[in-house]
Design a protein that fits this description.
The chain is mainly α. The chain has helices at residues 36-40, 76-82, 85-94, 100-111, 118-124, 133-148, 157-183, 196-205, 216-229, 236-245, 251-263, 270-281, 287-295, 316-331, 338-351, 354-358, 365-375, 383-404, and strands at residues 5-8, 17-22, 30-31, 60-63, 68-71, 74-75. The chain contains 18 helices and 6 strands. It binds acetyl coenzyme *A.
């Protein structure tokens, strides 16, 4: 804690109140309002957390004005270029880049825990074939808590670590099985000789009756997307995982709650909605009509994949994804994919439109990711599931960080009550109307 203070002048109080300032290593300072209610009788009011830091964290840093994203201090551009998803997972969990031996041991440990209990598979048959894979994912990940609950003591750091590893290892298997269930194909067992993303592609696209070879470019593209999606500090789903975990809840239940939050179209569900929107638009002639709708206050329509709570500049992840899109379409899809061309034109028109310029609305991570997923043969309904698999790393890293802080408390917000004042119950026979 620094020596700095801000002074609050409240006409209701006899003298000014000094509130301490919390300083991070980089980024904005925060006014510590923990003592605000005790000292002033007033709460801080910030629906949607526009100005509230809910915790301190050492994991990820974002400068939204400059378009900077750092994982444990390392720029996302350098990681996407030189690292791998499992190395990034290690970095996010443990804070440092691993040595070669440590990385190999970590990879081996994750890649050898990818099988799920055979009984868990029976859960899938309870879902209709056309159930949304995010709904299935949420249910099945949540039900992992039924398998490991008694063996998980969230107060034991080793138990927390094992749970984190299990979640990272098993979510691809659960995700791929959700897909297989939706198309009526048999579940494919994981293969320990494949890499993390290669194994996921194998479990999604292999069938028992013929050999399947993982395309190295597809695996690499997915690995890059997963690095970009692995964490994003206190986003809605991570904040949800922390909130649920703050009560000491089971980690598998916490991550299921994170999946639920991610599913919303304002968050991770946007990647699915971007594709729906582009397909609905059809071609560039529809752009003016859709932009007009996005700008119309009476129309709830928003340009999906545009805008971000934190980035008021180009999302650095979108910039990387746009480049990967070119490479993937060049080799695996149609280099003149009309949807990609439509997306690029939409971006160009929106970024020269006063409405988007004034509000600093830029393409976010979801704007181009769907086009890559589509080129890899991943169906639209699975897009947010892919995001969930990658973000599981961030969720468990934050959950572990929170529980290892001896000062952490249950997350229990206050409210400003605006309902009826105290009144007496009126018996039914005396009520009017
Ligand atoms: N299209 C049109 N207008 C928009 C858009 C958009 N995509 N996004 C924001 N705006 C406008 C708002 O209408 C508002 O205008 P106003 O000041 O005239 O009222 C202004 O920009 C600010 O928007 P807010 O909703 O206040 O911004 P907030 O930070 O609450 O929301 C969000 C951020 C949810 C991402 C929003 O930009 C949005 O809905 N985008 C589309 C959905 C999307 O792509 N989500 C993915 C985000 S990335 C991720 O979660 C992985």
């Amino acid at each position: 804690m620094s020596e700095k203070h801000v002074t609050l002048h409240d006409p209701d109080l006899p003298e000014p109140v000094e509130l301490p300032v919390v300083e991070g290593s980089i980024g904005p300072e925060a006014v510590d309002v923990v003592s605000l209610y005790r000292r002033t009788g007033k709460f801080a009011y910030d629906p949607g957390f526009l100005s509230t830091a809910s915790c301190t964290s050492r994991i990820t840093f974002i400068d939204g004005d400059e378009g900077i994203l750092l994982y444990r201090g390392y720029p996302i551009e350098q990681l996407a270029e030189q690292s791998s998803f499992l190395e990034v997972a290690y970095l996010l969990l443990y804070g440092e880049l691993p040595s070669r031996e440590v990385l190999e041991a970590f990879e081996e440990m994750i890649l050898h825990h990818t099988m799920i209990n055979e009984n868990l598979k029976r859960f899938y048959s309870g879902f209709y074939h056309n159930a949304h894979p995010m709904a299935v994912m949420m249910g099945v990940v949540g039900s992992l808590s039924a398998f490991y609950h008694d063996a998980t003591d969230v107060n034991d750091p080793r138990h927390r670590e094992i749970s984190a590893h299990r979640l990272i290892a098993k979510t691809p298997t659960i995700a791929a099985s959700s897909y297989k269930h939706s198309i009526g194909e048999p579940f494919i067992y994981p293969r320990n000789d494949l890499g993390y993303c290669g194994n996921l592609l194998h479990m999604m696209f292999a069938v028992p009756c013929e050999a399947y070879e993982v395309d190295p470019l597809a695996e690499k593209a997915l690995d890059i997307l997963f690095m970009l999606h692995a964490d994003h500090e206190q986003n809605a789903s991570t904040a949800t995982v922390r909130q649920v975990g703050s009560s000491g809840a089971n980690p598998f239940a916490c991550v299921a709650a994170g999946i639920a939050s991610l599913w919303g179209p304002a968050h991770g569900g946007a990647n699915e909605k971007v594709l729906d929107m582009l397909e609905e638009m059809g071609d560039v002639s529809a752009i003016p009509r859709y932009l007009a709708r996005a700008k119309d206050r009476d129309d709830p329509f928003r340009l999906m994949g545009f805008g971000h709570r934190v980035y008021k500049n180009y999302d650095p992840r979108a910039r990387i994804i746009r480049r990967v899109c070119h490479q993937v379409l060049e080799k695996l899809g149609d280099p003149h994919d009309p949807l990609f061309e439509l997306a690029m034109r939409l971006e160009e028109v929106a970024l020269s439109d006063d409405y988007f310029v004034e509000r600093k609305l830029y393409p976010n991570v979801d704007f181009y990711s769907g086009i890559i997923y589509r080129a890899l043969g991943i169906p639209v309904k699975m897009f947010t599931v892919m995001f969930a698999v990658a973000r599981t790393v961030g969720w468990v890293a934050h959950w572990m960080e929170m529980l290892s802080d001896p000062h952490h408390r249950i997350g229990r917000p206050r409210q400003v009550y605006t309902g009826a004042r105290r009144r007496d119950y009126v018996p039914l026979e005396r009520r009017e109307g």
